[in-house]
UniProtKB/TrEMBL annotation:
The keyword Acyltransferase applies. Keywords: Acyltransferase, Transferase. GO terms for molecular function: N-acetyltransferase activity. SUPFAM superfamilies: Acyl-CoA N-acyltransferases (Nat). The keyword Lyase does not apply. Residues 2-148 form the N-acetyltransferase domain. It holds the Pfam family Acetyltransf_1. It comes from Microbacterium trichothecenolyticum (Aureobacterium trichothecenolyticum). This is Acetyltransferase (GNAT) family protein.
């Protein structure tokens, strides 16, 4: 059975290969320095990024990271689900749905107006889940990299 709980310092060795798998899935690169910074931010109660881990029989099988920000269209804050990853061998087990539900419940408890996230159009497996638990808004994502 999948259990979801906040990340703890002892989770680093289990989180790290999942994080690397996530970065690889998106065919990207993140330096070791940034990975270390991300981990420290996830554990810092003063930093506005949060994380949780999904475990199945004690084994870490996925994670979720999210942050809260003010909004111009709402008095209540929004929750941005920035990273979500489930190990390939446990996809379809309900871990992804449980991680999203964890963030959604956290957002309710913190009086947020909504939870939202992005994914690639080609991420068909994840989008099948997302289409069941959320509303596809039809927005298209653009960005300008600033070389940092």
């Amino acid at each position: 059975m999948t259990e979801i709980r906040p990340l703890a310092p002892a989770d680093r060795d289990a989180w790290l290969p999942l994080w690397r798998g996530y970065i690889e899935f998106y065919e990207s690169e993140v330096s070791d320095e940034q990975t270390a910074l991300t981990w420290s931010r996830l554990l810092d109660p003063q930093f506005p990024i949060h994380g949780a881990v999904a475990t199945d029989d004690g084994r870490a099988v996925g994670f979720v990271h999210w942050l809260t920000h003010a909004a111009t269209w709402s008095a209540a804050p929004y929750v941005y689900l920035e990273d979500l990853f489930v190990a390939p061998d446990t996809r379809g087990s309900g871990a992804g749905r449980a991680l999203i539900a964890h963030v959604t419940e956290w957002a309710r408890e913190h009086d947020a107006a909504k939870v939202y996230w992005l994914t690639q159009e080609t991420n068909i497996t994840a989008r099948a889940l997302y289409d069941r638990v959320a509303t596809h808004t039809g927005f298209v994502h653009y960005e300008i990299g600033l070389g940092r």
